Amino acid sequence: MVKEEYYTVAFNIISNVGTAKSLVIEALYAAKEGEFQLAEGKLEESKQFFREGHRAHSSLVKREANGEQLDFSLILMHAEDQLMSVETISLLVTEMIELYKRSK
User: Fold this and answer.
1) Binding site for Mg(2+): what residues are annotated?
2) 66-90 exposure pattern, b = at least 16 Cβ within 10 A, e = fewer
3) Is the confidence at residue 1, as pLDDT, over 80?
4) Which CATH number covers residue 84?
5) Which of 1, 7, 84, 93 is deepest in the core (most CB within 10 A)?
6) Confidence class of residue 94 from pLDDT cuts 50, 70 and 90?
7) CA-based nearest residue to 21, from 54, 58, 50, 55
8) Are the C-beta atoms of 50 and 90 separated by less than 8 Å?
9) Residue 44: which domain range?
10) pLDDT tens, 19-45?
11) Closest to 97 in 3D by CA, of 10, 49, 50, 35
C-alpha cells in the first residue's frame, strides 16, 4: 500500500468518526433540553458517519488479513483510538438520553 493511500484511509476514519462524535454530543445536549426528536435524529446521523469510518478501518484490516504488510503508524493508531472512543461514547450517550426521557 502506498503511504499516501494509507494516510488517506486513516484520515478518512478520523474525519468520519470525529463528525460522529460531534453529532453524538449534540444529541446529548438536545436531550438535556428535552428535544428528544432532535436528539434521536442526531444519533441516527452519527451512526452513518461512524459506519463510514468503520468501513474504512475494515478495509485495512481485510488487507492485512489477506497478507499485505501494513506499516505501523501513529496516525492509524490515533484513528483506531478515535473509532473505539466514539463507539463507547455513543453507547453511553444513548443510555443517558434514555435517562433524560424518563426524568421529563
Assistant:
1) 81
2) eeeeeeeeeebeebbebbeebbebb
3) no
4) 1.20.58.80
5) 93
6) very high
7) 50
8) yes
9) 3-103
10) 999 999 999 999 999 999 999 999 999
11) 35
Which amino acid is it at 2?
V
Which is the catalytic residue, given 35, 78, 80, 87?
A: 78
Tallying the residues shown for the chain, one arrives at 104
pLDDT band at 50 (very low <50, low <70, confident <90, very high): very high
57 is catalytic: no
Domains of the chain: total: 1
| Cα 43 off chain centre by | 11
Q: Which of 73, 28, 69, 71 is nearest to 46 (CA)?
A: 28
